[in-house]
User: What shape does this take?
Amino acid sequence: MRPAFYRPNAPWLATGLLLALGSSFGQTFFLSLFAGEIRGEFGLSDGQWGGIYTAATLGSATVLVQAGRLADTMALRRLAVGILLLYAGAMLAMASAASVWLLGLAVFGLRFCGQGMLSHLAMTAMARWFRANRGRAVAVAVLGYPIGEALLPPLTVPLVAAVGWRGGWLIAAGIVLVVLLPVVLRLMADPRTPQGEGPDETAAGLGGRHWTRGQVLGHWGFWALMPGILAPSFIGTVAFFHQVHIAETRGWDLAVMTLGYPVYAGVSVATSLAFGRVVDRVGPLRLLPVYLLPMAAGMVLIQMPGSEVIWMGVLLCIGLTQGIAVTIIGTLWPTLYGTRHIGGVKALATSAMVVATAAGPGITGLAIDLGVPFPDQGMAMAAWLVAVSGLFAVVGARLAREVRVPATS
Assistant: This one.
């Protein structure tokens, strides 16, 4: 750790971390904890609940494409306050939903505000506030994700048993309104540029330019990066989503499997912090060919014979890639396309990742219905990851050359 960086910039770093942590209430791992109670109360099958979830998530991604641009035109403090208030409203709607339609709208609000906008704001803030130490800043902010994944499930399950699933959402809304909102307001009260980053919040990208969203969509690099950028979101989501199916297929004890989540969270945290410094030294482009390989190893491992220890190894491999991925991706877009329009640019990538998390369970679930168990799908996913890593070796080298091209007058 470097106190000379972390201590003076603590309010900004803490803001990013808390926004990422706050997104947990709209993430798949948290919402899935209520699935049994919701299906039972509304009389939904697994497929019907999954359909509602997918539709709400796709709707969230669609709106996020446009709403994400607000980060370029509104003060981040004002935007964060507005999103947190909408977030709490979605939680209250979840707690009081009396019909399937209202349930779907509540899930949409949770996915849009939580997984979508709070994650988007956390990474946009780090990209805008930091340049020389952007990798370290992103590494600190993304700690909010594994902290939520490690702490919330063991706290939520007994809470729901005690107060019911609707009571659980009322408590979540209270946490947002009484704890998260006031703390974020206080942390973002000082608008000055964090120490050591210079007086100008903007930093140019390729060719010394600040790319607009339309220009990014016309750049070959954005589309070449998408197959690999989306892979961790797709594969990580489906591995967690199908854990009950995996337990049944492999004959594993689900309770024992859950013991692997601290391993996942710890590896993700340690990797993120370590690679934050690496990214600042070598840049995100040089790491593109290697960061997907641990997840590929995990997808091969899931097919191997053995006990629940295999699942621990799978989570460890996924955690390695996820820890590196969030740091690389958080620094990649501002490196390539500048920070003046970073809200709109990152909204494109975030929306695509939301779509990946929505499509993943449906695609892999269909394969399961067709007789291909999830563990047997692992080799196809591993092949995808290895192939993209080879592609990234070429793409990363070419983009690095373009980054080095001096600005034209």
Observations:
- The chain has a mean pLDDT of 83.
- The radius of gyration is 21 Å.
